[in-house]
Amino acid sequence: MAIANKINRGENEDSTDKTLDAIDDIIIDELYDNIDDAVEIEEGAHSRKKRGTTAYNSNLAGCGGTYRNLYGIIESPQFPLYYPRNKECLYDIEVPNENYTVKVTCDVFTLQGGNCTFDYLLVSPSGNSSFPDEERYCGAVPPVISSNTSKLLIKFITDDLFRYQGFSCRYRAIQPNGIAVPGTFGNTTENAKNSLANTNFLQTVQCPQVGPAISTGGTDGTKEEESTMGTSMYSGLWNGMCGNQNDAPSGRIVGGWAAIEHQFPWMAAVLRTCGNEYCHICGATIISEEWILTGAHCMATVAKEELGVLVGDHDLFSVSNDQKFIRVKEKVIHPDYNYPTPLNNDIGLIRLENPIVFTKYIAPLCLPALGETGFEDSLVVNKSMLDTTGLTIVGQNATVLGWGMINDAKVYAEGLRGVQVEILDNDVCNRLYGIMTENMMCTSGNNGRGTCYGDSGGPAVVQSTDGTWVQVGILAFGALAGCELGYPSGQVLVHKYIDWIQAITGIAFGAQFG
Fold first, then answer.
1. Is 223 exposed, middle or buried (0-12, 13-18, 19+ CB in 10 A)?
2. β-bridge pairing 459-463 and 397-402
3. What does DSSP assign to residue 69?
4. Other Cβ atoms within 10 Å of 110 Cβ, number
5. 456 noted as active-site residue
6. How many angstroms from the chain centroid is the CA of residue 425?
7. Could you report how far apart the first and last alpha carbons of the chain are, in Å?
8. C-alpha–C-alpha distance, residues 314 and 261, integer Å
9. From the candidates 346, 444, 455, 499, which is the catalytic residue?
10. Which residues neighbour 237 within 8 Å (Cβ) at sequence distance 6 or greater?
11. Is residue 280 flagged as an active site residue?
12. What distance in Å separates the CA atoms of residue 38 and residue 63, rounded to the nearest whole number?
């Protein structure tokens, strides 16, 4: 083999480290030989072939660059392969508004550790090319880097020794109030992570059903037939649509109403280990085969290995044939969680160890399309920036669901319960709690009809005119004084985070993608 021959030619090297480095270089060299296009270079009457760089540069990151947009991705050279030795790459970042600052967070960060003198990021928060205010970052802990102006300079320096995978980081423009400019996770899923099941289902399941009829036949010129039967390639019991409701709500009771078993097949419970058992800690929703949406506070301090998710359940205190317990493969907390105020950006995603097989009793919930709110008469005008100024959601109603306490006597619900709440002006919650931001909404709790302990992380949903349900909120916090006193609750506005959810999951949500 070519690789073996090249290794043999270097057999006089006595150092094991040098031999391993040689093997590493050869593997990378062979990879480039295989994926590079040949570039014709004319020299007089003759032509020769030279290894080109255009083929792998389209897939592998270059060395530094100039960045002038509101957001973008910076990566170590040759990422996702190991970065080369003896490099100095300058990343010159400036967002197009002098009132904004820059924040950098990293999905991947693996550099040589130690005292940051070998391979490291050299940062100037003021964007000064002399780096008088230098900060250094290395090792395997992803840093959070912030500028103090609209400029940020980052220099990536490597020595002649070891090589690692490097970094893949996202920079975003931050407003003066400390909140990221809306839409800075991008408006498409082109650069999103690969999804477990990258099929058409991922884009069509999030669409409300246009009509009851489906077409069969017709491809050979024969007359198409229509059927009112819902179809699904996953289960004969699931109709392939998100946001289904299986039964009508039951009668109202004090503090809300008891849901019928499997009425809302997209509800999930987040559990954690309690000795030899699992305890319920938060509500959540199913948004795809492998992703669960919940609150960041539900899992921020809980190890991934201690988490589990229960789907297809109604009564958490009993066992049924329809419930499924799935362990957690990955937990993703929003990079701006708890910043700039407590519980801001309180949103997180759980990736399941095994994908869900959807049935009539276990199915996904709809999320708003990018640039929409989920409230059908409150569309965002400027979709490119997800500008939510002037939304008319105040005064509208939403339904909140959960397995939390039903009173202040610490009595938990035996089954899933729901209650209708009104969306209030954020100032109502802010006067009480002082932590409301434009990423939140305030929901009522009058007459003891609201959320309580154990409901957090669960959804606020609204029903579309076609009957499907869309998630508009995630319960973040309530009053410490008690749940029956009528205090309002704070919720995360889900539509503010669709770009982030799509970037993490690789799934395009909303009717426009169906």
1. exposed
2. antiparallel
3. S
4. 20
5. yes
6. 27
7. 49
8. 5
9. 346
10. 359, 360, 361
11. no
12. 22
Give phi and psi for 31, each to the nearest 5: -60, -45
Residue type, position 298, single letter: C
Closest CA to 490 of 403, 449, 429, 401: 429
Residue whose pair of structure tokens reads 């709790």 in the numeric block: 445
297, 314, 334, 495: which is the annotated catalytic residue? 297
pLDDT tens digit string along 117-156? 999 999 999 999 999 999 999 999 999 999 999 999 999 9
CA torsion 327→363→194→491, rounded to 10°?
Answer: -80
Place of tokens 């990293």: 106
Of 150, 168, 456, 489, which is the active-site residue? 456
CA distance 107 to 113: 18
Report the predicted TM-score, pTM, of the whole model to 2 decimal places: 0.76
Q: Which residues touch 359 (CB under 8 Å, ≥6 apart)?
A: 235, 237, 238, 265, 312, 322
Judged by phi (left if over 0) then psi (alpha if -120 to 50, else beta), residue 11 lies in alpha
Structural element, H or E, at residue 251: none
Distance in angstroms (rounded) separating the CA atoms of residues 472 and 400: 10
Are 393 and 423 in contact, with CB atoms under 8 Å apart? yes
DSSP output for 360-421:
SSS-PPB-PPTT--SSTT---S-TTTT--TT---TT-EEEEEES-BSSTT-PBPSS-EEEEE
CA dihedral 205, 206, 210, 214 (to 10 degrees): -10
Cis peptide preceding 125, ω within 30 of 0: no
pLDDT in tens, 32-91: 444 333 333 333 444 444 333 334 445 688 999 999 999 999 999 999 999 999 999 999
> Are 442 and 489 contacting, i.e. CB atoms less than 8 angstroms apart?
yes
Query: Cα–Cα distance between 3 and 6 in angstroms, integer?
Result: 5
What per-residue confidence (pLDDT) applies to 353? 96
**CB-based contact 382:510 (threshold 8 Å):** no
Please check whether residue 91 is in contact with residue 67, taking contact to mean a CB–CB distance below 8 angstroms.
yes
Tokens standing for 324? Answer: 């499924």
Contacts (Cβ under 8 Å, ≥6 apart) of 248 = 260
Closest CA to 492 of 456, 429, 439, 449: 439
Sorted by where each starts, the structural domains of the chain and their CATH numbers stand as: 2-7+14-56 (no CATH), 60-174 (2.60.120.290), 193-211+233-514 (2.40.10.10)
CB-based contact 57:35 (threshold 8 Å): no
For residue 233, CA distances in Å to 57, 199, 241, 359 come to 39, 11, 11, 11
Residues 109 and 226: their CA atoms lie apart, in Å, by 53
